[in-house]
């Protein structure tokens, strides 16, 4: 079933999305929010040559619901061939190359663009496949409750003495988490901070 932007707004648990078939998958940004916030240096849905499928692919962004792209400049913010740090929320560069992801074995033919394609073009809109468990496990290791990047950010915030949402504390990690559909909340920060060892 399709999700509306209001599904998560009505939850009392910190704004997390709830997918009843994958309760451990709790992003708190919808795909639309990730795109609208400014992500991937604007290049995510650029034309690519996929070494996994051995074909050239373009215009995949047209699969997205039109309202997700409202106000965005497609050629600069969605399907640019040039990475632009200033497109990103935190004005920093982060992420690996498509070639790196392909050679790591993380890309499969059904989703040649990788994780965000799985989440936004597909899973979020109701598609389910046998690859979902693997992809959600990747999400959990990155942005989940015990995820490495979430824990990394919380640790840096605790040690900095700054507010949980201070963008000067680890903007690259914040941008990375955003690409995985997650933004640190006060509730998650307080919970995670209990596990941080002070130096």
Automatic annotation (TrEMBL):
Protein name (database record): Zgc:113208
Domain of life: Eukaryota
